[in-house]
Structures are given as structure tokens and as C-alpha cells.
Fold this protein.
Amino acid sequence: MMQLAYSGTSPFVRKVTVLAIETGQHAKLKRVDSNPWSDDDPLPATNPVGRVPALTLEDGTGLSGSQLICEYLDAQHIGSKLFPAAGPARWQALNQQYLADGLMEAGVAGVVERLRRPEPYRWADWVKRQQSKIERTLDALEAQAKAGQLGGPITIGTLSVAIALGYMDFRYADLDWRKSRPALAAWEAVMAERPSLAQTRPA
């Protein structure tokens, strides 16, 4: 059985979990609770960078990062692929994944600054910079929603966007991102009911 270094609050781990559910491979993953902030956690033996998610295959091979792990898992099943084949659909899906990952990275950076850094050393300009990234990316995704670019078959791009928006709800509830982005909000409301997303919604 493959082992997934896991943290329940990581949106990147959630992305791997959602893809595993979508491709019928969730039962093949053994979740191993990990704490990237603990010096005693064995995570660096799997991923020297010390970040989740990290996947250990049955032969002991380690794969790190949600993008790589998701593409690996997508290559292991015979159903419809979430990573489209080369062509416009693939580039759109990968670009959407990039935007979603950037949104999550900015969100995580802001959370770390608020919750992990001692208050006297917190950098207000850094938090403001992450907030600007979040707002710009949400606006770009609103434009894609209005243009119908988030419609069509489910891809790694659209799943990643839905997960990133879920992280905004989880960690940035006061942002109220839906208020000025009605197209994106309407799209997310439908996506949120998808079983793989509903089952993994962070609490």
C-alpha cells in the first residue's frame, strides 16, 4: 500500500486526496499523520524539503509535491484522465492548477505569518503582499468563470481551483471573496457538492 504523508489542514494534501477519490484509488493510500513543524517528524526521510504531501510507493520510491503526486496517480488508472493530453485543454488545466496552487501558497504564507511567527517579528508588508496575490488571483479566476473556462469536463485545474477556494473559506472566512465575484461563487457552489470535495471539506 502506498503511504501518504498527511496533514488535515493542508490544501495540497487535500488535492491529492480528492484526485485519489476521483480516480478510485483512495483505498490504496495509507494516510500517515505528519507535522512538518516538528523536528522529530520522520517526514524529511520521505521528502527532504520537509513538506506535505509526500507519497511513498510500494517499492519505497518517494514522490513529493501535489503536482507530481497527482499526475502520477492520474497515470495509474484506466478511467478518464484529469490531466488532459497535450493540446489547448492541457495547457488550460495546468494553468488553472498553477493559479490555484499560487492562491493556496499565498494563503498558507499569510497563515504562517499570523500563527507561527512570534508577534513582535510579524511583517505587516509581507502579509499585505500575500493578500494582494490572493485578491488578484481570485479576480483572474472570476474572469475565467465569466468566460466559461471553468466549465466542461473536470480536470486537475478545476479541482485545484475548487480546493483553493475551499481553503479561502477555511482560513480566510473574513475575506468574503464571493461578494464581488458572483460567477466564481456560483461555479464553486456547484463544485462543492461533488462527493470528492464534500467528503474532504476542511473542518
Notes: The radius of gyration is 17 Å. The chain has a mean pLDDT of 93.
